[in-house]
Amino acid sequence: MRFLSVAVLAALALSVPVGALAQVKFKRCLSSAEIQTEQLVRHGVFLREAGNRCDEMLPGTAAKWKKFDERFGPRLKSQTDRRAKMFTREFKKDALKVRTYFDGRLVTYHRNVPLTTAYCAQADKMLDDVNRRGWGGFTEQAKVVQNEVLLDYKACSGG
Questions:
Q1: Residue-wise pLDDT tens for the chain (159 aa)?
Q2: Domain ranges for the chain
Q3: What's the CA gap between 46 and 27, in Å, rounded?
């Protein structure tokens, strides 16, 4: 299975003009609301991937993600739609292509993190927390990815 992942990644890498996407940068800065949107989208991807992947090692994590997704799917979709508008503003001609690149990079990362007992236990704990605390708990958890977001995007000063 790991070989298949490597083969798929290699095929994707060969099909994308490296020079074009490797240098992708947002032209403008992102507001604090846009940074939060990116944090929420990235955290949702993490919980989905971790929940689904850890289910083999720690049964029930996929069901916990599904429960959260069923409850808050419209809010998650709203954040994803906001993010799509952000990409359209920044990359008018290639918005879908660039967003697909960013999404692919994010999903590929989370699908290739080595599964360990500690990783899955932490994901399980986080899924329990968001199911217990709801959207507020999810947004609190998502704040920890701010530094990661700021490596990719420039924040507007003052907001």
A1: 444 344 444 344 434 444 444 455 666 778 889 889 989 999 999 999 999 999 999 999 999 999 999 999 999 999 999 999 988 888 888 888 888 888 888 888 888 889 999 999 999 999 999 999 999 999 999 988 666 787 877 888 765
A2: 2-152
A3: 26
Q: Do the beta carbons of residue 137 and residue 130 sit within 8 Å?
A: yes
Which residues, in sequence order, are CB contacts of 74 under 8 Å at separation 6+?
none
Locate 17 and state its tokens.
Answer: 């003009």
Q: In which region does residue 134 sit, left (phi positive, over 0), alpha (psi from -120 to 50) or beta (all else)?
A: left
The single-letter DSSP state of residue 159 is -
**CA-CA distance, 68 to 62, in Å (whole number)?**
10
Task: Using CB atoms within 10 Å of the CB of residue 51, give its burial: 0 to 12 exposed, 13 to 18 middle, 19+ buried.
Answer: buried
What is the DSSP annotation of 2-53?
A: HHHHHHHHHHHHHHS-HHHHHT---SS-B-HHHHHHHHHHHHHHHHHHHHHH
Beta bridge partners of 30: 155
155: β partners: 30
